[in-house]
Structures are given as C-alpha cells and as structure tokens.
C-alpha cells in the first residue's frame, strides 16, 4: 500500500512518534514489520460548530473513494462456524436434556435451572466487563455459550466411558478417585476447549489476542457450569429427604464459593491460545492448544482433589488463584487500552485523528465524556458504534504490523476507515 505524508499542518504536536510501536507487552512489533499508517485523502471533513467533546474540534480527513468498499457482514468461516455450532447444539440437546431429566426429575430440573441462573449471571457480568473495550460479535459469544452449555457436555458424555476404559486401569487409582481427579479434568477441559480451537480456526480476525481468548473461554465455561449446576442442584432436590437443606449446601459450594471455577480453568487455555494467536502463526496456535490444556487440567484436578481440609485449601490455594486471575484480567485491560491508544496515535500522526480525539477514543475518561455528550444530543448509539469502530481499527493495525496476511488486513483497514468516516458523520449530522 502506498504511504502518504500528512498534508502540511495536519500533524498534531500532541501526538507521539509512531516509532514508539510497543506500548505494552500485548502488542509487540518487530522492527522489520513496522510501517507508517496510510495517509488520508486531501479533502477535509468540516465538522459543524457546537458544544462537542475536545476530540471533535478540528477538521477530519475524507477517505479516498476507492477505499470505501462495504464490509462483508461475516466471513464464510464465521458463518460456517455459527451454523455448524447451532446444528451441533440442537443435536446435543437431545442427549443432554434427557440425561438431566433422568437424574433430577422434572421438579428438580426446574429448580436447578432457576438456581443455576444466578452463578451464570455472575460469570456473564464478568465477561461483559472484560469485553467492554473491544466487544466480540454477539453471534460468536452465542456460539461459545451454546458450545459450553450443550455441545461440550455432550462430548464429555460420549468420551468419558471410552477414556475410563482406556486410561482407568493404567492409572492404578480406584474408580472414584480416577473419575474425579483425572477423568473429569481431562475430558471436560478437552471438550470445552475444542470450542476455543474452532473459534481460533474459523474466526481468526475476532480471536486475535489474549483478551479475546479469556472472553470466549469464560463464556464457554459459563455455559458448561450452567448445565452442570442444573444437574447438581436438581439432584440435591430429587435425591434427598431434606431437599431444601441439601440444595442450600450445594448452592453455597458451587454458586457462592466457586461460580468462577470453570471459568478460571478454561480461561487459562483461552489466555495461552490468545497469546499464540497474537503472533498470527497457524502452526504455533495449533501447538498452543495442547499446551493450554495442561494448566486448565491441573487447576481442575487440584480443585476436585480437595477433601476433608477443603476450606483450608480453598482459602490458601483457591482464593489466591482467583485473585491472580483477577489481576491478569486487570493487566489485560490496561494493556489493551495502551495498545489502542498507540495505534490510534499512529493514525493521528498520518492525519486521520487529532490528538484530543485520540484521547477521547482511547481512554476510559474520554469515552465517558463522549458518551455523555452524545446522549445529550440523542446520538448515544452512534457514538458507541464510533468508539467501537476506532478500537477495531487499532487492532486491525496491530494485525498489519504482525507481518502476516498484510494485504488482506490492509483492505480491512481501508474498509474500517470508511466505516469510521460514516459513523463520525452519523454522530455529527
């Protein structure tokens, strides 16, 4: 792609040098892959006067007409993934639902279903928090949840007997110990993480970093835990002479003390797959799959191995693991914001944005200010779309700077710049 120098007077003095290409560990760029952001067209877009955020105080460039091809709604790979996932979930329902009803009874199933919504809600709120900066497509999150709640459960049910026959005798463990500490962690984490691998293969543009990996992993794990909780809660009702007491105990252990257990297990796999995806090397991502399963299986086995000293191990081991997971999520969000700001600054250096506009688009305070202003003029949805489009642009540039599939990503870049121009017009019209 031809690179243009910005017209005289367009480079903002507040914008740092684009050579500061590595703002955080999240988006390291090799010097040989770095290239300046493309320059804009020559005609400026004059913005109307009014009480606007600081980022909207100067003229903005217009994208050349040749680069305004419409963005496809979904790639063939994503469409196939969503369709195939929906079919698998539908088929899995005929295996999973009878199993749940057989073990819980109709009354236990209903109670278990309702009770399971509470821990599920906490996991989905965490997903929403992590995913706020660069939201994943809803269709992919729906695929992830359906995979976790139905397909991974069905895969687990089909694989467990085979795995037990093949590995049980060789383990030297009694059946219960083997089932709890070996079989469940290995089979369940493999089944859940298959969904992550499919997302990585078929939705590569949406799954290109550790934050995406954690978001998809938490969603899959939340779905799996939801179905598993229906079984445990419902069974506490169906097979007890004191159903209220037993349900309260099981709910406290699973819904209060450990709603994020499965999310943390599978989240470690998602984190490793996301780190590999950031390198944009297909072979590396495939190798990362078995590597990422190891910590998930170990964490799962460690959780299931807690016995009579459960509460001591919970406080001394599981709580620190949970706090470490929270710290990792916070660090990922900080790194994501820094990466967004640096990449948008590079577009600002080429003349696409002003310095104040980058601050508006790439900082939490700037976004809050922009949303407040947009709500005051009745254009909150347009502003939300504009902010998200700018974030996508930053991550498209990161993919360009990875050095792989550069022409395809540059086309995405031009389409995204056209979308940003249209969204800015929608906000300011």
Question: Can you offer a commentary on this structure?
Answer:
It is a single chain. This protein has helices at 76-130, 138-171, 175-202, 210-238, 243-256, 261-278, 282-304, 310-350, 355-362, 364-376, 380-401, 406-428, and strands at residues 44-45, 60-61. The chain is mostly helical. It folds into two domains: 25-68 and 337-428, no CATH class; 76-305, no CATH class. Strands 1-2 form a two-stranded antiparallel ribbon. Helix 2 (138-171) packs across helix 4 (210-238), helix 4 packs antiparallel against helix 6 and helix 9 crosses helix 10.
Any descriptors?
2 domains, 2 strands, disordered N terminus, 429 residues, single chain, elongated, two-stranded antiparallel ribbon, mainly alpha
- N- to C-terminal separation? 32 Å
Show unreliable segments: 1-19, 42-50, 57-74
How many structural domains does the protein architecture include? Answer: 2
Radius of gyration: 24 Å
Helix amount, in percent?
A: over 70%
Rough outline = elongated
Overall pLDDT score: 85
Tally of DSSP β-strands:
2
- Order of SSEs, N→C? EEHHHHHHHHHHHH
Instruction: Give the biggest beta sheet.
Output: 2 strands, antiparallel
Strand content: under 5%
Strands of the largest sheet, in order across it? Answer: 1-2
Structural class: mainly alpha
- The total of helices stands at 12
Short description:
With 429 residues, the chain is mainly α. It has 12 helices and 2 strands. It has 2 domains: 25-68 and 337-428, no CATH class; 76-305, no CATH class.
């Amino acid at each position: 792609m031809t690179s243009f120098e910005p017209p005289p007077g367009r480079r903002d003095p507040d914008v740092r040098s684009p050579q500061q290409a590595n703002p955080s560990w999240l988006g390291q760029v090799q010097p040989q892959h770095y290239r300046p952001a493309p320059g804009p067209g020559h005609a400026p877009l004059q913005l109307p006067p009014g009480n606007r955020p600081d980022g909207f105080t100067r003229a903005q460039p217009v994208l050349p007409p040749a680069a305004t091809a419409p963005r496809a709604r979904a790639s063939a790979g994503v469409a196939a993934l969503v369709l195939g996932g929906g079919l698998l979930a539908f088929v899995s329902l005929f295996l999973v639902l009878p199993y749940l009803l057989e073990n819980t009874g109709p009354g236990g199933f209903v109670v278990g279903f309702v009770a399971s919504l509470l821990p599920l809600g906490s996991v989905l709120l965490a997903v929403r928090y992590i995913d706020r900066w660069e939201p994943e497509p809803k269709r992919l999150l729906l695929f992830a949840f359906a995979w976790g709640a139905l397909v991974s459960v069905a895969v687990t049910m089909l694989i467990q007997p085979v795995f037990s026959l093949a590995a049980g005798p060789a383990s030297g463990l009694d059946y219960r110990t083997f089932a709890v500490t070996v079989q469940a962690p290995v089979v369940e984490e493999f089944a859940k993480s298959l969904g992550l691998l499919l997302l990585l293969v078929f939705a590569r543009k949406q799954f290109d970093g550790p934050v995406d990996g954690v978001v998809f992993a938490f969603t899959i794990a939340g779905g799996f835990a939801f179905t598993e909780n229906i079984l445990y809660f419902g069974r506490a009702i169906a097979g007890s002479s004191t159903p209220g007491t037993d349900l309260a105990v099981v709910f406290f252990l699973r819904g209060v003390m450990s709603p994020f257990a499965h999310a943390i297990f599978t989240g470690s796999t998602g984190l490793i797959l996301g780190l590999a995806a950031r390198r944009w090397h297909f072979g590396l991502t495939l190798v990362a799959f078995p590597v990422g399963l190891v910590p998930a299986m170990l964490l799962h086995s460690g959780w299931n191995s807690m016995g009579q000293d459960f509460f001591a191990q919970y406080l001394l081991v599981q709580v620190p693991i949970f706090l470490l997971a929270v710290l990792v999520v916070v660090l990922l969000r900080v790194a994501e914001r820094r990466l967004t700001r640096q990449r948008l600054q590079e577009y600002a250096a080429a003349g696409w944005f002003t310095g104040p506009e980058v601050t508006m688009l790439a900082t939490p305070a700037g976004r809050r200010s922009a949303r407040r202003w947009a709500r005051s003029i009745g254009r909150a949805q347009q502003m939300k779309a504009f902010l998200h489009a700018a974030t996508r642009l930053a991550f498209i540039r990161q993919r360009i700077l990875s050095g792989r599939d550069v022409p395809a990503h540059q086309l995405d870049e031009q389409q995204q710049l056209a979308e940003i121009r249209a969204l800015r017009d929608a906000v300011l019209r």
